[in-house]
Specification:
This protein has 413 residues and is of the alpha/beta class. The protein is built from twelve helices and 15 strands. The chain is globular and about 80 Å long.
Amino acid sequence: MSSYRPHKVVDDLRTLADRTGGPDGSRRLCWTPEWLAARALLRESLTTLPVEVDEDEAGNLWVVLPGASADTLVVGSHLDSVPKGGWLDGALGVMAGLELLRSLAADGTPPVTVALVDWADEEGARFSRSLFGSAACMGTLDVEVLRGLTDKNGGRLPEILAEHGVDIDNLDGARSRMADVKAYVEVHIEQGPILEDRGLGICTVTGTKGIERERLIFRGQAAHAGTMPMEMRRDSFRAAARFALAIAEVGARHDGVTTVGHVACWPGVVTAVAGETRITMDMRHISAESLQAMFDEARVAATEAAAAEGCTVEWEHIFRIPPMPFHPALLDAARAAVRAVEGHDVELPSGALHDASEMAREIPTVMIFSSSTAGLSHTKEEDTPVDHLVMAADAFDRTCRRAMELITAGTLG
């Protein structure tokens, strides 16, 4: 019988919200004093546990409960938030992992080593590079790109990291933490409306969708808004608008999602035809083949949209990650846990990235979702019914204990 206390997870989340939240939402932007305050609270909660606590070369906070074997189960998520974010995003996984360590320590020495990790800068909200800490552990960070990143105040990433004891030229040292890791389990809010729409509290997560993220630059000719006839214009914004409508159809056709999230026009005044328009494109799918087909069709759509308006188009790559399906044996463990807790076999892919996305590159991984009220996240309105949080924590505990059994049996591969 597990001594895990799901309600204690909710209590810890409320304490964190009281310490680092407010009327405008969470204040846990990474590499800031508020983020350090959140970590200080976590450290305070560890003082009575027989754990080893330290930070790796990328600023990830590791809490290790030694087991009978060096083979390691890693659990966790992230304490950092977007500005004015929610009280649950990321924090749920950290506090659920904290309670797992408490319950295992109370029961004696676990059969395998269990490590809780608070990943550094999962959100990427300050420097636009998401999954920073987990990517460092997987060796997927491009250091030369990182050197050029700045925040909105002009602060340079290498200098800010140095203030927190992180040397940008030494990030690969974090890779050593993966040596004995055999499995990774994370619990998170859905951040979308599907579970609530189905009247459910939790589900198994099958994997994370792949992402193609690009910037497109449409170039035409700036001209006077009053004197240039419509049929003679080379309007870059009209070209971009054609493209935006076209990729919406691409996403629907392939059962994926496509988004134009940012648009900027030059000269950017009401009296001028837009000579240049820059937009961002984000497309996601759980199938690598479908994602590639969507991307190929977007290329064609951009060329056709530009030609229709007498413009040119240029692409600038921003970010790419393939779909990350989770491990079959751990999926079975999560499904069994969800059935035991809520009595169903509903499962979803994650449209959002998580640190699990990076871990799944090399490590057997699985996730559990709780519902999100109105599908809202990254906002102060973010919430989840308490009974759903309790169910998610319970299913997480059950999944972790089965994962430990699989590690002990050596069957994860």
